Amino acid sequence: MKKVSSIKKIAINTGGGDAPGLNAVIKAVTISALNRGWEVVGIREGYNGLFLPEKFPDGGLINLTYETVKDITPLGGTILGTTNRGNPLRFPMKSANGTIVEVDRSDEIMAGFRRNKIDALIAIGGDGSLSMANVFQKKGLPVIGVPKTIDNDLEKTVMTFGFDTAVGFATESIDRLHSTAQSHSRIMVVEMMGRYAGWISLNSGISGSADVILIPEIPYDVNVVADFLNKKFEGGKNYAIVVVAEGAKSKEGSTSVIEKEAGKSERLGGAAEKFAKDLQPLVDKEIRSVILGHLLRGGSPTTFDRLVSLRFGAAAIRALEEGHSGIMVALNPPTVDYVPLDQVSNRMKFVPIDCDTMKTGRDLGICFGD
Amino acid sequence: MKKVSSIKKIAINTGGGDAPGLNAVIKAVTISALNRGWEVVGIREGYNGLFLPEKFPDGGLINLTYETVKDITPLGGTILGTTNRGNPLRFPMKSANGTIVEVDRSDEIMAGFRRNKIDALIAIGGDGSLSMANVFQKKGLPVIGVPKTIDNDLEKTVMTFGFDTAVGFATESIDRLHSTAQSHSRIMVVEMMGRYAGWISLNSGISGSADVILIPEIPYDVNVVADFLNKKFEGGKNYAIVVVAEGAKSKEGSTSVIEKEAGKSERLGGAAEKFAKDLQPLVDKEIRSVILGHLLRGGSPTTFDRLVSLRFGAAAIRALEEGHSGIMVALNPPTVDYVPLDQVSNRMKFVPIDCDTMKTGRDLGICFGD
Amino acid sequence: MKKVSSIKKIAINTGGGDAPGLNAVIKAVTISALNRGWEVVGIREGYNGLFLPEKFPDGGLINLTYETVKDITPLGGTILGTTNRGNPLRFPMKSANGTIVEVDRSDEIMAGFRRNKIDALIAIGGDGSLSMANVFQKKGLPVIGVPKTIDNDLEKTVMTFGFDTAVGFATESIDRLHSTAQSHSRIMVVEMMGRYAGWISLNSGISGSADVILIPEIPYDVNVVADFLNKKFEGGKNYAIVVVAEGAKSKEGSTSVIEKEAGKSERLGGAAEKFAKDLQPLVDKEIRSVILGHLLRGGSPTTFDRLVSLRFGAAAIRALEEGHSGIMVALNPPTVDYVPLDQVSNRMKFVPIDCDTMKTGRDLGICFGD
Amino acid sequence: MKKVSSIKKIAINTGGGDAPGLNAVIKAVTISALNRGWEVVGIREGYNGLFLPEKFPDGGLINLTYETVKDITPLGGTILGTTNRGNPLRFPMKSANGTIVEVDRSDEIMAGFRRNKIDALIAIGGDGSLSMANVFQKKGLPVIGVPKTIDNDLEKTVMTFGFDTAVGFATESIDRLHSTAQSHSRIMVVEMMGRYAGWISLNSGISGSADVILIPEIPYDVNVVADFLNKKFEGGKNYAIVVVAEGAKSKEGSTSVIEKEAGKSERLGGAAEKFAKDLQPLVDKEIRSVILGHLLRGGSPTTFDRLVSLRFGAAAIRALEEGHSGIMVALNPPTVDYVPLDQVSNRMKFVPIDCDTMKTGRDLGICFGD
């Protein structure tokens, strides 16, 4: 393992879906490193900049300077670009006989690191990206991971960046729908991102005063929801807001539109549609659906997300300076801890059905469809 | 026609789709009238409060006081409720032989006005609602109309409320999508409301730096758009934003998903989907779609919409006091004018293809698909 | 101590400065309690509703129902009202000889609780309010405290509500000032709330890319700041943003405008003015000041603040049901814990000068004036 | 006068205080001109870039390309910089005997235009900047003016950019203060920009449900305001919002803090302070003040401001191409007109005391202090 004393140049990688706060991490990493006399480069589009040179006539690495990063904290997305096509450990290529095979190209990437004299890598990403970064660590490159997820589904860190911005926009959207739903005496169904974990739906639904919240962790019975809503309508309320995670599924299970497509990486928007279709015969109100989709990823990061991102970025460089590697920085409020990359589990952080936030939802009389 | 001197009590009606600013009109009408010693009532859910008494056990009219309206300016929707099911001039009822027939129930509503001693009506609505109000004017009830449309498609008023809020949210949404589109090198297609007129798409698309804007007024050729985008990509831009009005249609015309359903009142979200499907084979980028839908109707009105609404409401009462009726208040900046309800045409205000805003779009190099 | 089994009616109190999220706590407490069959009342304006009956012709208690609280989550302020005039333990009254004396009126308040058959109190407030509530606990009324502070200066809870909203607005305001400062080549000094602790300034300053942050915990030397800025200007930057906590003080100390007034409860806005006056002779740029003041307290709570508030409110009722009292609910992410009110120290939570966030600020090259 | 056919290169100037939308004008001018095959340069800091070369080691002109302007629509400020120190027609310089004299340096600027082969100027500014631009027109350089003012005080254009953003932020700030004022039973006084014209105060005060609005056009009597407020408090309202333009003055006149300083160009923040001080003895509520100041200039332009800016920029180039010069583009909704620069009066557009918006304010029961 390289010693700190030998660090002269580091690389930053952003992988997977973009999340508000990525640029703030890049800024903090860059300035913290430059202030220590290190050079910093950003790898374009995941690791593509290192092993797919033909895509980048101007070079696959971006030299990061004070000037490059000084104004990027408030910007959504990542100035390095990202990709979710083509995991380099299982990269799809055409074989000799014309079929598509998956090829491990990590050695080419390692060669790229060596060729560019990169002494350490700051890898910013979700579960998958961090596992990939750990491969490079095992092959000899010091790596510090920075957790990223708008879905809040990463273990080993209490919170990370991207999620607060997404939940904020989700709540604001629910706020917008209340008055129009009430004016028209409608049921408004809002679909949120969250294929496996229901955090965005749960937090925004509670904060936005939803009547019903359906999350992947709790299979729902449409009849339970209909009974709940009809009782509300009898009690005088003339409208309802239903929040549905894209991965929510009914108890009978097999009918979920989402489930059939589990192999695909794209978000489908089918959960709201299916639920609305099943609910309509059971209630005497118009139902309308809204799918927030990609709007949840965009926008300027909230202050919370900016600050966590900047703290993570600065902590990553301090960790490296202190001689650490093979670790991920993690928020354990109010401090930032280090967690071995090996322990960054492949399991997701699902909503525990008896967690404090779930209890709050039940205390507030919100229906979870069970 | 009733004279001003005889006005003791007025009614307010809100009809059709809700729009941010409705409550501000209600507030200004109410306070202006109360300050003149008049009584004010609001009719619940369009005119339902007057002719469908069974729906309202507590009465179909809401007594409007200073207390009722003091804090409602910033609220979206309408505190009176609205409906777009059942035009009272063609109200669907079951006939003796079991078929559904359309019945004119305007005389029942007129009876309701008389029974409740209503001396004049402030009708807030779009083209259809104002035509309906004109029927009551013809039958002897003094009416002042207030124009409402989030689509900006009403003739005879340069602007009205609701539109600025909708365009503002649309632009903010486009802003959010730039960074995520750029990070992923994607084409992002955003569908806006606007079945017949493209104002929301045009104004938000230009303000939000869209590359392509497709509106109902200009049938598009997907090949023209593809050529335009591919040239951009060759020039180095790695992503694109395409704004599509829900009523946008391709030149070949007959394939539009929307068109087939023209009779239905519901918004379908098919325009973005169809366009994306047709475009995908012609470009080498991922395409993702977002449909803003009902989010465009909600939310707190912008300052512009609040002010126009309050000015309209106050002007309506001044008009009534001055002895006017059978007119609509209209914005002819910087003044508020009166326009005869008879002249409030049934034609929509489409985007003129040579208007200043269109010219601006072309000067900026935006593609309109033609 | 009263047993849970005997709880039939509880009271809610909001004391001290208002903070976004108070209404969400009130909502969660109310609904959680009503759902358990308990009655809920709110005390008007701190404890005034209980011992100053003459102020409230309609009664000093508000009966809280589902209807009262259903839409209040997004509202700033407190529907109960609050006061920061007149601590009931040291209430200023005119003595027989005409001088003003401080009188302990807690027994009158206890009598008020008994008279109104209040079985337990949910006290929402800062350090002072919670100490006061603890007095009632000692006198026999079961109390659950809920921590409130926009300044983030409460020990024993990692975070509480109000702060995220305040910091969010502060950051947004700094964002607004960058472009105007840059266009005019100016130094912009922004004063934030924070008389004793610099959390708002620190977090918003880092998130908003301030150049200099001055907080009460770190006395500053204006010459250090001037040297720092002049070096930046020589390096090519043409403007600067300086964030100043209202309690920031220069190293020479005695000259602080604020300090002289330490006994008064009012915020003075003198810190920015003093700093700007001292800095102006040392730099060759125009300086302009902005004081955020009361704007930081207002507005709809962020999602984070809404959720923490709702969780605290629901947890307070669960705690009571479980037989707890004399405790404060506290956020120890991701869980809500109980802390004895006796341990809720009278010490504030100052910014530790070596905390992770301070290190981040230094890593980013921000000047703290020391 | 130069003919269109001879235009090969144009310059853009931004002068005076910055306003949201300046960058959108720059973008539209630049792209519209580049698309016609013209070159475009921006003059740095007003006209400084042309006659104070020592300030700009890298040159006083910025070459504007597609790349420079593509992402600037949402940015506040001006990428060219601006200045309000030193009108070049009366530029302060040290005379031979050591006194400061005002020197006309317009010929040096004209020489700069010639030296850089500038064929026409797009001058974006307020009344003063446009008068200055007209001097260059008279001296032979074709000029198109674009009106800019956040104060809405320009004659000859119904609206221009910057104002909608400023009023929007002002209204949002008033919104924030309602809940905190109500919670504490306070009078909150908010001071807005507007030294001579009260548009920002009037429009935001009405939209934000202020109780009292004090503008320069209507001298106020503090006793009238006190009587008005005390009547409100007797009627049950427990708080009030007072909006004060910085140029508001009391009827006795001579006591206004602002008035004494009329010669200075800086904003003073004295109007709210003076009013609060005079009001306090007359009411039995705490009064708190907030000064919005420079926050009103900052931030991303609203959609309205973006669109007007883009339309103005594109129209300016079309005007030039059509052979016009010596004119200002002006908004006469829904069209953009041309107005001779000679007619752009030196008089300001004050609030007419009987305009529709004032009538609305009076109809709503708002007190104007008269």
Summarize the structure.
The structure is a homotetramer of 370-residue chains. By secondary structure, chain A is α/β, with parallel strands linked by helices.
Measured by DSSP, the beta-strand proportion of chain A falls in: 15-25%
Dominant shape of chain A: elongated
Cα distance spanning the termini of chain A: 52 Å
C-alpha-based Rg of chain A, rounded: 23 Å
Averaged pLDDT of chain A: 92
CATH class of the largest domain in chain A: Alpha Beta
Q: Given the structure, what is the number of helices of chain A?
A: 12
Structural domain tally of chain A:
2
Oligomerization: homotetramer
What is the H/E order of chain A? EHEHEHEEHEHEEHEHEHEHHEHEEH
Instruction: Please name the two chains that share the biggest interface, counting residues whose Cβ lies under 8 Å from a Cβ on the partner chain.
Output: A-C, 46 and 46 residues
Report on the biggest sheet of chain A.
8 strands, mixed
CATH fold group of the largest domain in chain A: Rossmann fold
Query: Low-confidence runs of chain A (pLDDT<50, min 5 residues)?
Result: 254-268
Please identify the structural class of chain A as seen in this structure: alpha/beta
What's the total count of β strands of chain A? 14
Question: Helix fraction of chain A?
Answer: 25-40%
Please state the second-level CATH architecture of the largest domain in chain A. Answer: 3-Layer(aba) Sandwich
